[in-house]
Write a structure and sequence with these properties.
- The chain is α/β, with parallel strands linked by helices.
- It has two domains: 176 residues, 3-Layer(aba) Sandwich (Rossmann fold); 95 residues, Immunoglobulin-like (Sandwich).
- The chain is 27% helix and 21% strand.
- It has a five-stranded mixed beta sheet with strand order 5-15-14-10-11. Strands 2-1-3-4 form a four-stranded parallel beta sheet, sandwiched between helices. A four-stranded antiparallel beta sheet has the order 6-7-8-13, with no helix packed on it.
- Strand 7 and strand 8 form a beta hairpin.
- Helix 2 packs across helix 3 and helix 4 packs parallel to helix 5.
- The longest helix has 15 residues.
Length: 367
């Protein structure tokens, strides 16, 4: 697979329906103009599942062949990886599933998308996602503090409410349809995210209780801004999984939305390695990007190698062309205090295809 495509991405979702269907729609948008990338979503989205079932049904079986083996050959992915006992707790299991898929299929980038819910194992999941002894590939985390619908709400507004539920229901799991004024325990969006969406008439319920991608996807830039704001508000308040609201799903969405420009690779350190002997470090105290050339050769740092951009991908500031001599440190870009809230992301152009990326919340959290 890795030889057939320039980039292969795995997205492991906690949800069985909303998240896989959302990323299925986003995947179709992405690959329409980027035929040389492959994206696998687990669990398999409904539309893909129906297509697989149709292919299996229409496949002409040889004598003695089994439908089950034919189905496995078509999807080229086990429905469920066998997760070791020490990794079965949620959400660690989603991180581990991504790692196991990497061991078997060799994906070039891994993502796990999950919520806080009442899961007990968030710290272990986070540590496992970066544990190079267990897996030499980082598992990126797309997180939402309550449910995936919190990301959908951010397409319409930034809400500081610390929601406690995705959707209000009773002990028998009968939902209250909050926001519709049809149940005496309707919270009107004060406790549950979906109730907030319905109460404000941002989106209507569908027959499947899911929201349609095309009804909110045109507001993605609004959601980028609001998700980033949730992380900026959480700076200095402890681990991301203990903050509410908090959303980082936008990092994956931003990557997929802008694949036509470059392959944006999210980094989680204030030090960016541009090559074997060249690194760029962000100095938070002075708001400076500093390049260090530890090689014995000079080189030209091209203008626009480091850019500050907003959520619309407008370039607000970039470095100038300059000569970088051996064994030196140079300030290549300085951010004035008044500029700190004008940009959203910093991109570092490794080459014409791959860009490293950090967001403003990361810059503010670095020590």
């Amino acid at each position: 697979m890795s030889q057939e495509f320039r980039k292969t991405i795995l997205i492991v979702c906690e949800g069985q329906r909303s998240e896989p269907d959302y990323f299925h729609s986003l995947k179709n948008e992405t690959i329409e103009n980027n035929k040389n990338i492959f994206i696998r979503i687990l669990p398999i989205p409904k539309e893909e599942q129906l297509q697989i079932d149709e292919e299996v049904a229409n496949f002409k079986l040889r004598n003695g062949a089994k439908k089950r083996s034919i189905r496995k050959a078509i999807i080229e992915e086990p429905q469920d990886y066998i997760i070791e006992d020490e990794y079965k707790a949620q959400p660690t299991c989603y991180i581990r599933k991504a790692q196991l898929a990497y061991f078997e299929k060799g994906y070039s980038e891994l993502w796990a998308v999950y919520d806080k819910d009442g899961h007990p194992d968030h710290l272990n999941a986070y540590l496992l996602s970066k544990n190079k002894e267990e897996c030499n590939k980082t598992v990126n985390i797309g997180f939402s503090s309550i449910s995936f619908e919190e990301w959908i709400l951010m397409h319409f507004e930034y809400c500081s409410t610390s929601f406690v539920k995705s959707q209000c229901r009773d002990s028998d799991k009968r939902i209250f349809n909050c926001g519709t004024n049809t149940h005496e325990l309707d919270c009107h969006g004060e406790r549950c995210v979906i109730g907030k969406i319905i109460e404000n008439k941002y989106l209507p319920y569908t027959s499947s209780k899911n929201f349609e991608y095309n009804d909110f996807s045109q507001n993605t830039v609004v959601a980028f801004n609001n998700a980033l704001k949730s992380r900026i508000e959480a700076v200095g308040k402890g681990s991301f999984f203990n903050n509410n609201p908090y959303v980082s799903i936008d990092r994956l969405v931003f990557k997929l939305k802008h694949f036509d420009k470059a392959d944006h690779i999210w980094r989680y350190s204030n030090t960016i390695k541009m090559s074997r002997d060249v690194i760029i470090t962000y100095n938070k105290k002075d708001n400076q990007f500093i390049i260090n050339n530890s090689s014995t050769a000079s080189f030209i740092l091209q203008s626009g190698s480091v850019e500050l951009i907003d959520c619309n991908y407008n370039v607000l500031k970039s470095n100038n062309r300059m000569l970088i001599v051996p064994n030196c440190e140079e300030i290549i870009l300085e951010v004035e205090k008044l500029e700190l809230n004008t940009f959203s992301y910093v991109i570092f152009k490794l080459n014409n295809i791959e860009y490293n990326i950090l967001d403003l919340s990361q810059l503010q959290s670095f020590t």
